Each structure stands twice: as structure tokens, then as C-alpha cells.
Amino acid sequence: MKTSLVIMAAGIGSRFGGGIKQLEPVGMHGEIIMDYSIHDAIEAGFNKIIFIIRKDIEEAFREVIGERIEAICKQLNVEIDYAFQAMDDLPEGVKLPKDRTKPWGTGQAVLACKGLIKEPFAVINADDYYGKESFFKLHDFLEEYTPEKPTDFCAAGFILKNTLSENGGVTRGVCQVNENGYLTGIDETKNIVKVGNKAAVQKEDGQEPIDENSHVSMNMWGLTPEFVGLLEEGFVREIISKIQTMRKEAGFEVMDKIKVTYKGSEKAEAVFAANGTQICSEVLAVSAEKAEPAGFVKEWKINGEAVFMGVEKEGR
Fold first, then answer.
1. Could you tell me the pTM of the whole model?
2. Spatial distance between the Cα atoms of 119 and 227, rounded to a whole number of angstroms
3. Residue 237's pLDDT band (boundaries 50, 70, 90)?
4. Pairwise CA distance, residues 28 & 48, whole Å
5. Mean pLDDT throughout 44-66?
6. What are the φ and ψ backbone dihedral angles of 126, each rounded to 5 degrees?
7. For residue 224, what are the CA distances in angstroms to 132, 199, 230, 267?
8. What integer pLDDT is reported at residue 233 of this predicted model?
9. Which of 142, 191, 249, 265 is positioned for an S-S bond with 169, CB 3.0–4.6 A?
10. What DSSP string runs through the chain?
11. Helices 132-142 and 33-44 sit at what angle, rounded to 10 degrees?
12. Is pLDDT of 17 > 60?
């Protein structure tokens, strides 16, 4: 079975050089953390690597990291691909803060891989060390995937005390787990510090103890190919909502049948094309056609993608 490792590296600085932690050598021969993650993943059985980066660092990334890894993976028959994450790819109504420099979270990063992921996959950070055992356990879980279990996901759990630093506080996702070992929630907890053999949350007014044996997440997930579709479902719901708004603004009656025309970004048009039947069913449309928008026309920005849509009554 093909299994992919998705590495979120969009947070790497635009200038490759000193001070960029993902590129700091940690091994005897200049290896970086990503080298260890990729080595361990391939040994565990992963046979496809997807780097999530930004367009503005593509050339430098390939030169410094990608081409070297590609050469190694070619010898091992491991596929390499790239996805691109953009900070302005946001839901309608959400503005990009002026001082925002870091990429958004895991969900948006994974959605950038649509079209590349067709198999069970793992997601990791580029700058965290996970250890060989983690990749083997994750791969074993992913090998149990079948299309009948599209929502069977997993998170690698680490014992908090084993993830603390001697050099200051860390941020960890403290896991809430039920009696059957299922994850029920994650609380992002900042500035967790090592206090002897114990752990505490460092606050302005002192330290608050935290169980050093807690399970924590380091953003290492095992997911199914259907997960990308679940993320995209939010995009489809936004399109439906916008068309319903346009029906009202155009003065249509509740039971009027309509025709929808659209044009927009490549991604928006792909979502329309793949989900046209569902969209038509929910907005009482007899058709949704990629064409010059006609009738009552509006421009929208959905999940950061520009879309022009037109609605008109059937028979016009």
C-alpha cells in the first residue's frame, strides 16, 4: 500500500542561512531534523514524501534540501512532490492580520495538498524530532486503512516529560483521552517548563504544576485520503451559502428553479466541477455551468479563492 509523509515546511524563512532552525545541523555529518524524519519514515514503509512550502522559497528549498532528498529517494523508489501554502488563502470574511508572518495551521496546510494525496498519510512538522518508533506505529495504523473506514484517524501521543527542553519553555498540545484510548480533545498549553523531574506551566505569577506523564501531541497525525475532502466540504458549504444569499438578493421565490454560471480561480472551478450535483440539489438549480456569469452576478472570495457567480431563473 502506498503511504505518504506530508512535511509542513512553509514556516522556513525566505533567506536560507544561519538562524533558521529547520536548517540547523544536528547530526555528525550536517544532517538536519528533516533528514532524520524522512529516513525513519522510509524505513517504516512510507513511500511518498510531500513537502508543503511557500512559492517564494521554492527555488531555494529545492536547492538546499529538495534536490538532495530527491536524489536519495529516487534510489529508493520513493516519490517526491510539493504543495504550496499561502497565508491569504482564508475563509470569506477573515482578514490577514498585517503583522502575520507565520503560516496558518495544519488544516489549511493539508488542504494545499488536494490533488496530491490519494492514499493514507501522515503529517508532521519540519522542525520536530519524533523518533523512529513513532513512524513505525503510525505506518502500522495507516496500513489498516480501507475505504470503509474513511474517518479512522490517529494522533501520535508522546509522554510530556520526554518532550521537555533544558533550554526553556515549550508549547504542547495536552491530550484528553477517554478510557478506551480515544482522543477527545487537545488543549494547547504554552510555556511548559522542566522543574527537576516534574513539569509546570510558567505563568507571570508563578508556576502551575502539570502532570509530567500526560500524553501530548507534537502535531504528528495519521489521516485518510478522505480527510482532504472533509476539509474541502467547508468550501462547498460556503458556495451553497453564497448562492442562497444571491437568490434572496435577486428577489427569487423560494421554489424558483435557477441556473448557476461561474468562473474563478482554478481551485474554485475544480470544487464547483467536483461538487456540482450537490450544489445544484441544495440551491434548486437545474445546472451549474462554467461560463461567463449571467443574470444576477456577484464576485465573492471564498477560502481566499476569487469566484464570480451568476444566478438566473430557469427559462430566461
1. 0.71
2. 10
3. confident
4. 26
5. 90
6. -75, -25
7. 21, 34, 10, 21
8. 78
9. 191
10. ---EEEEE-TTS-SS-STT-GGG---STTS--HHHHHHHHHHHHT--EEEEEE-GGGHHHHIIIIIHHHHHHHHHTT-EEEEEE--TT---TTPPPPTT--S---HHHHHHTTTTT--S-EEEEETT----HHHHHHHHHHHTT--TT-TT--EEEEEEGGGG-BTTB-EEEEEEEE-TTS-EEEEEEEEEEEEETTEEEEEETTEEEEE-TT-EEEEEEEEE-THHHHHHHHHHHHHHHHHHHHHHHHTT--TT--EEEEEEE-HHHHHHHHHHHHHHHHHHTEEEEEESS--SEEEEEEETTEEEEEEEEETT-
11. 40
12. no
Contacts with 101 (C-beta within 8 Å, 6 or more apart), sequence order = none
Q: Which three cell numbers stand for residue 285?
A: 438549480
Contact 50, 85 (CB under 8 A): no
The C-alpha cell of 194 is what? 522542566
Compare 207 and 106 and report the one with higher pLDDT.
207
Note the residue count of the chain.
316
